[in-house]
């Protein structure tokens, strides 16, 4: 079955009592049991809920995985992954990651003696040099956030397997429609499903997809024990959003390609970061390991002192954190999504005060370009 067809029908099970063509919202916390030792598949919604189960079957299907899990946010999903490790373990993390990921590792899980080293993961020699006896996993986000570094997943998976490490990939930016890290050798894939999977700025969610049965048992244990699960109402909204993922991602990327080229030739723009541009250093690798380049990009303006003036002129682009929705959003990573990073680290990574990240929606591209032109001029 082709992906676009699976996006419509994945996760569905026939509702034998009503024949409903979409998964109902099972807004229930507990379920009547037949006996103390038997039930109809569910006993308590923290452990399992039919609407959430449909999401979990769905994400496993479209990521090409055996097991899927749904959580109350992307960071709840990541936290669950981290809780499968133990005190004293060490991670190697790509330095081009979401600021919330940096905060979670450096301000929360470090208290539990889980340590992280951040490196430029496009250079495998740098990763190899940081492997220690207690290193247990390599965590990457590709393309990265907000500078869109592209990491060779397949090549890195060979390195991690040689060293008995887990390879964890954040696939939020490209989604399963454009990229499937498990097929490239990753051990764990997760998403902030709040973004492209939901796609309408109306749900907070996170998902995990894996193939290993032992790891699946560990994830399932933490999910049930900690309880940061996706509720039935949000599960329903996520299922509804994912059905249109294919057509949305195609429109996002179509607009993004045109806008990236336009910005790349604009006299007030210093640099554009988008893997879809042939001048991007990760362009060829992106073509090799993904089927598309996505709908989000960053650009640096020449006059960074004008940043507030530029932001105030937008009419269609909304100044907001998040990304991946049908409407276009604009943000300044240094002061918003990556504000948690120390200034010296921002400077080292190239996250300047003049860097603007735009999540390109599915509006008419001519309107979006006009909005950008008015803001920049």
Verbal overview:
The protein is an alpha/beta fold. It folds into two domains: 3-242, Aspartate Aminotransferase, domain 2 (3-Layer(aba) Sandwich), CATH 3.40.640.10; 245-376, Alpha-Beta Complex (Aspartate Aminotransferase, domain 1). The protein has helices at 3-9, 50-62, 74-82, 99-108, 124-130, 153-162, 175-178, 213-226, 232-242, 245-264, 283-289, 307-313, 343-349, 365-376; strands at residues 67-71, 90-94, 115-119, 135-141, 166-170, 188-192, 206-210, 269-273, 296-301, 318-319, 329-331, 355-359. The strands form two sheets. It has a seven-stranded mixed β-sheet, sandwiched between helices. A five-stranded mixed β-sheet has the order 8-9-12-11-10, covered by helices on one side. Strand 4 (135-141), helix 6 and strand 5 form a beta-alpha-beta unit. Helix 2 (50-62) runs parallel beside helix 9 and helix 12 (307-313) runs antiparallel to helix 14 (365-376). 48% of the residues are buried. The model has no long low-confidence stretch (mean pLDDT 96).
Concise summary:
It contains 14 helices and twelve strands.
Which features would summarize this protein structure in a list?
single chain, 7-stranded mixed beta sheet, 5-stranded mixed beta sheet, Aspartate Aminotransferase, domain 1, alpha/beta, 2 domains
């Amino acid at each position: 079955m082709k992906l676009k067809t699976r996006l419509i029908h994945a996760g569905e099970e026939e509702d034998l009592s009503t024949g409903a063509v979409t998964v109902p919202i099972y807004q229930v916390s507990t379920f009547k049991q037949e006996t103390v030792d038997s039930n109809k598949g569910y006993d308590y919604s923290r452990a399992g809920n039919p609407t959430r189960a449909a999401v979990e079957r769905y994400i496993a299907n479209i990521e090409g995985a055996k097991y899927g899990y749904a959580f109350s946010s992307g960071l709840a999903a990541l936290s669950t992954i981290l809780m499968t490790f133990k005190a004293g373990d060490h991670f190697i993390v790509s330095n081009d990651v979401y600021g919330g990921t940096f905060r979670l590792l450096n301000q929360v899980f470090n208290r539990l003696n889980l340590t992280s080293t951040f490196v430029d993961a496009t250079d495998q020699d740098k990763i190899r040099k940081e492997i220690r006896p207690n290193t247990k996993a390599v965590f990457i986000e590709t393309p990265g956030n907000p500078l869109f570094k592209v990491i060779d997943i397949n090549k890195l998976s060979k390195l991690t397997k040689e060293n008995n490490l887990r390879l964890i990939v954040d696939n939020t930016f490209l989604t399963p429609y454009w990229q499937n890290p498990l097929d490239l050798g990753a051990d764990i894939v997760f998403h902030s499903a709040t973004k492209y999977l939901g796609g309408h700025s109306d749900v907070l969610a996170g998902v995990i997809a894996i193939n290993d049965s032992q790891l699946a048992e560990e994830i399932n244990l933490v999910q049930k024990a900690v309880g940061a699960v996706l509720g039935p109402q949000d599960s329903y909204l996520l299922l509804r959003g994912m059905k249109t993922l294919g057509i949305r991602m195609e429109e996002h990327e179509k607009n993004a390609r045109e806008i990236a080229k336009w910005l790349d030739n604009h006299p007030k723009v210093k640099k554009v970061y988008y893997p879809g541009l042939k001048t991007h250093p990760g362009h060829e690798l992106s073509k090799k390991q993904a089927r598309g380049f996505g709908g989000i990009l960053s650009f640096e303006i020449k006059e960074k002192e004008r940043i507030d003036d530029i932001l105030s002129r937008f009419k269609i682009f909304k100044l907001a954190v998040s990304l991946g929705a049908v409407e276009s959003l604009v943000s300044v990573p240094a002061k918003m999504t990556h504000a948690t990073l120390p200034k010296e680290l921002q400077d080292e990574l190239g996250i300047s005060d003049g860097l603007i990240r735009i999540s390109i929606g599915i509006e008419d591209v001519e309107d979006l370009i006009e909005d950008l032109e008015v803001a920049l001029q």
